[in-house]
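Work Package 4 report. The design task specified in the project plan requires that, given a folded chain encoded as structure tokens, an amino acid be chosen for each position. We show below one input record used in the internal validation round.
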């Protein structure tokens, strides 16, 4: 099993969720986060004072999938989240050793 973590632009969340649903992936955790990479933030004006916004709003998705679904999941997220502009985000993939469904006690891939 693998955990796919994607950092995307907030307005792309619905597109990504719908695209993942179409390929049969429904278990998604979405978290509002702030951060920056090469985008580095921007300068804004508030009541005549200029200030720097270092951390930009993003959404972090966490999805645990079977090993055979990883590439399809990555491709789907990439296609749905891409705008072609700086700040589109990143995808990280890590191994998951164990999953337990609390309600039923199911473990492993059965618990996904």
């Amino acid at each position: 099993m693998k955990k796919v973590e994607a950092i995307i632009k907030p307005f792309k969340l619905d597109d990504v969720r719908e695209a993942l649903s179409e390929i049969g992936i429904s278990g998604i955790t979405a978290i509002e986060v702030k951060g920056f990479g090469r985008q580095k933030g921007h300068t804004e004006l508030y009541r005549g004072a200029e200030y720097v916004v270092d951390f930009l709003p993003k959404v972090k998705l966490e999805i645990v999938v079977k090993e055979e679904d990883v590439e399809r999941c990555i491709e789907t997220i990439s296609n749905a989240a891409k705008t072609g502009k700086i700040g589109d985000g990143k995808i990280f993939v890590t191994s998951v050793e164990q999953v337990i469904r609390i309600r039923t006690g199911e473990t492993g891939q059965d618990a996904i």
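The beta strands are 2-8, 29-35, 42-46, 49-53, 56-65, 90-95. Validation will be extended to a larger panel in the next phase.
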